[in-house]
Amino acid sequence: MVDHEPTDDGLAECYDVLNPWGPDNDFYLALVLAADAVLDVGCGTGTLLHRAREAGHPGRLCGLDPSPGMLRRARRRTDLPIEWFAADAAAAGAPEVTGRGPGSRFDLVVMTGHAFQALTGDAEVRAALAAIRSALRDGGRFVFETRNPLVRPWERWTPEHAVEVAGPDGRTARVSHRVELPVTGDLVRFSETFEGPMWPVPQVSRAALRFPDAAVLAGWLTAAGLAVEAQYGHWDRRPCTPDAPEIITVARRAA
Question: Where are the domains of the chain?
């Protein structure tokens, strides 16, 4: 089969269908609603910030994403005052994002949807964490999640475990994965195949995700001047145990 790489807009169109609202979104929404100024790094189509504004968040809400297609969909909600920036995580601390006057910067930065795992190189991780720390006010928090490598979730990323979801218009999309074996170290390379009526032929995308463990994450954060406040293994804040599916990290900007 000839690979057909999905377009940026094509992926953005199906993103919300493939990633419906769930307990992870409820977890982050509660944090956003309790914060005055929020930056969502890797905001995708902006669903979290849209929902926060709909729920009455009165403060500053900003979304940052490198994908033009995702941001085009985010900006469709012209009825909601939210700032959108086309950039990657390393730009989080830029003055045009944080603001320049008194009270600028954020008291909460979030990185949802396992987006942190897309930072696959050490230099990329360091640049992102330095920028996020710069974007935070003193005492501000950075909250994100990664998949727990101890449960080896990529072993279930096979065509036999394809996911089918139906969108609000009734169209069904099917996504399957195939991991490049053997997996060595903490980097997992894989392909995603998208099939459905929105594409004339199957679309194949290739990607890599990094799977750091809790101790490695804590080391990176400490080196960046971010103190780990808590790490959870589940969205109901149960502890991060060896068999927990997630490593949900809450870090605070150290003085």
Answer: 8-148+211-253, 151-209
